[in-house]
Amino acid sequence: MIRNLPPLFWKITPLVIAGMFIVSGLGLIIFGSVTYNKTVNEEEDVLGFIEAGFKTGSTLTISVGVIDFFIGLFGLGVALLNARWLHKVYSGFLIFMLLGNLITFYTLTTSANEELREITNLLKDAVQNLYGNNTRTDGQEFTDLVNKLMSETPCCGFSGNEKENIFLKTSWHENIKTKFSTINLPDQCCTTHSDKCREATDIADARNAGHVHPTDCINELYKDYGRELFAVFVEVTLSTIMQIVSGVYTVLLLMYGPETKD
C-alpha cells in the first residue's frame, strides 16, 4: 500500500514537515525572547520567583526553537536535493536529536528540582533575616511586600512546609514577644483576626482548623515557576513527536519511496 502512494506525496510531505519545524522554531524563538525580557511588577512577584521561572523557561524555549529551526532548514535542503545519502544523514541526525531531547528531559527535571531547592533556601534565609528587621534599611520594605503577598495570595509561611512556623525564627517574633508573649503568627497569616490564629502554637493544627491560610507561600510561588517549566516540557514533547514523524517518513521514503539520487 505504501508503495502505491502517489509521487506527489513523497515530494510534498517532506516540505510540509520541514516547514512545520521552521515555523515552530521561529515561533519558539520569538516567544522565548519576548517572555525572557518580560518585566514583572514587584507587587505581582514579591521575591522574584515568577521572573526566575520566566528566565529559565524562556532560555529553554529559545534553545528548543533553535533546534527545531535548524532541523527544518536541514530537512528542507534534504527534500530539495533529494539525495539518498542525505536522507540517511538526516535520519541519523534526527536520532541524535531525539537522544538530545531525552537528555533535555532528564537535565530539566534534575536542574529544576535543584534550582527550586536553592531558591527555597534563599527565601527562607531572606525571611528569617529581613522579616520584621527594622535595623536594616531594606527590612521594612521586604516585610511590607511579604505581608502583601500573604494577604492577597492568600498564604502563610516561607519554608515550603505547612507544618513549620518560620516566623518564630524572625526578628518580627523577637520584637513582638517583648510586648505580646503569646503572639506567634502575623495577622496576614490569619483567615480571620482571631487569637486562635495569632497565638497558635501548632501551625499545622491551626491550618486544619481553618484559622491560618492553608498553604505555605513558597508552595504557591512554585505554581508560577512550575507553569513556565511545564510549558517547556510540552515544547520538548511536541518537538520530539515532530522528529519521530519526520524520522518515520524518511525511513519509509528510503524503503518504499521513489528512487532518489545517489
Defining traits:
262 residues; mainly alpha; 8 helices; 0% strand; rod-shaped; transmembrane helix; Tetraspanin
Folded structure, characterized:
The chain has 262 residues and is mainly α. It has a domain at 2-131 and 226-256. 69% of the residues lie in helices and 0% in strands. The chain has 8 helices and no strands. It has helices at residues 7-36, 49-81, 84-130, 139-152, 171-176, 195-198, 203-208, 217-256. Helix 1 packs antiparallel against helix 2 (49-81), helix 2 (49-81) runs parallel beside helix 8 (217-256) and helix 3 packs antiparallel against helix 8. The chain starts with 6 loop residues before the first helix and ends in a 6-residue tail after the last helix. The model has no long low-confidence stretch (mean pLDDT 83).
How do the helices and strands line up, and which of them pair or pack?
Elements (H helix, E strand, L loop, with lengths): L6 H30 L12 H33 L2 H47 L8 H14 L18 H6 L18 H4 L4 H6 L8 H40 L6
Organism: Macrostomum lignano
Main location: membrane
Keywords: Membrane, Transmembrane, Transmembrane helix
Structural class: mainly alpha
Number of strands: 0
- Euclidean distance between termini CA atoms: 25 Å
Uncertain parts? none
Helix content: 55-70%
Report the average pLDDT across residues: 83
Largest sheet: none
User: In angstroms, what is the radius of gyration?
Assistant: 27 Å
Q: What is the count of DSSP helices, taking H or I runs of 4+ residues?
A: 8
Shape: rod-shaped
The fraction of residues in strands falls at under 5%
Q: SSE order, as H and E?
A: HHHHHHHH
Membrane topology: Multi-pass membrane protein
Subcellular location: Membrane
InterPro entries: Tetraspanin/Peripherin, Tetraspanin_EC2_sf
Keywords: Membrane, Transmembrane, Transmembrane helix
